[in-house]
Specification:
Elements (H helix, E strand, L loop, with lengths): L1 E5 L6 E5 L7 H8 L7 E6 L6 H8 L3 E7 L2 H13 L6 E5 L14 E6 L16 H6 L6 H11 E12 L3 H10 L2 E10 L8 E8 L6 E2 L3 E2 L9 H6 L6
Parallel strand pairs: 3-4, 3-6, 4-5, 6-7, 8-10, 8-11
Antiparallel strand pairs: 1-2, 7-9, 8-9
Helix pairs in contact: 1-2, 5-6
Length: 241
């Protein structure tokens, strides 16, 4: 079922399918992570319904965003979201297979690439194959090496690739990035509480960057009282309510 929500009262509205493309905390976490600069050209690989294409301009209005997504149903919703918020001059939606360079925008044309990719290895049978939900959660149509290669191709030299991913695949992620000339530069682990082990990571890699990784303090989703942390509340724009 198609539903509508809003980032904050008076803010961007967005449509989503709660059975297939339901927005998750990971998208909001990634939306808060990149260091945005005015006038940057941004590409979201595997954009789904275009939520990141709203979260990033909500933080920095002067961006040019290109959403790249394979699934037709998701692209249709992304186009509706762009129109719903009056953003056709700043946000474009491209149905394309990121494994096919000929379908992607010009090489080296972006300052920032972002992605909330499928977390699970389809070969390990983590989720059902052949469904829209399965395609969104497992790398049936896009492996981690293919994603990193696409990001590296699209970025200018010195550009950044920011993504959210599973901690359990961190070593594999670093290997893939470095194999494509993307050097991990900034890492932040995401924990439910200060005592729990991290399950997600936020990472920035730089095309042609020198070695040297900075690790920030963990991002905590829950405060000492068990409620939503102050930082997570800001990530969800609750300070604008």
């Amino acid at each position: 079922m198609i539903k509508q929500d809003q980032l904050w009262p008076g803010g961007f509205r967005f449509l989503f399918d709660d059975e297939i493309f339901k927005p998750g905390t990971d998208s909001f976490l990634l939306g808060s992570f990149p260091r945005l600069r005015r006038g940057e050209r941004v590409c979201d690989l595997g954009a789904g319904t275009g939520l990141l294409g709203l979260l990033l301009p909500a933080r920095e209005p002067d961006l040019q965003v290109t959403n790249v997504e394979l699934q037709a149903a998701a692209v249709a919703l992304a186009e509706q979201n762009t129109a719903l918020n009056g953003l056709p001059e700043r946000v474009s939606n491209l149905r394309a297979d990121l494994r096919e360079p000929g379908q992607l925008p010009k090489a080296g044309s972006f300052d920032l690439v972002v992605s909330n990719p499928p977390y699970f290895d389809a070969a390990r049978g983590a989720v059902a194959k052949g469904t829209e939900r399965g395609l969104a959660r497992a790398d049936c149509t896009c492996t981690l090496p293919q994603l990193c290669a696409a990001a590296a191709r699209l970025l200018r030299h010195g550009g950044s690739f920011c993504l959210v991913f599973r901690v359990e695949r961190m070593a594999e992620l670093f290997t893939c990035l470095q194999g494509c000339g993307l050097e991990p530069k900034r890492l932040r682990l995401v924990q439910n509480t200060a005592q729990s082990a991290p399950k997600l990571l936020l990472l920035e890699a730089r095309k042609g960057g020198k070695t040297g990784l900075s690790v920030a303090a963990p991002l905590l989703l829950r405060g000492p009282d068990g409620g939503e942390s102050e930082e997570l509340a800001q990530i969800y724009f609750r300070d604008k309510e």
